[in-house]
Amino acid sequence: MIKTKSYAALDAASPLVPYEIQRREPGPDDVQIEILYCGVCFNLILKRRQLAGPLIGGMRETREVLDFCAQLDIVSDIELMPMNYINTVYQRMLKSDVKYRFVIDMARF
Questions:
Q1: Rounded alpha-carbon distances, angstroms, from residue 83 to 1, 53, 89, 106
Q2: Prediction pTM value
Q3: Residue ranges of the domains in the chain?
Q4: What pLDDT, in 10s, does the model give residues 14-52?
């Protein structure tokens, strides 16, 4: 087992406290991710600060994720829709009738 230091709220009314998590060793089908930056979140949480902005990284980070997914053949489930169905797509989105991510096919207009 791997001991990992973290912070946890032991119940809904408790503050964050240091906590140790016991993790198993990664297996052959697991993906291990190297975390390069950490720490800002704790300062924001403990001081009850808010952070606004996009929830994704920049172009470099996006490229890293796409390359990583391509290496492991990780793909999204999509619903490919021709451009002339754009109004149907919009109406379905308004009704929350979306099972997968919509992708508009601009090539088959």
A1: 52, 30, 9, 6
A2: 0.39
A3: 2-74, 76-109
A4: 888 888 888 888 888 877 777 666 555 555 565 666 656
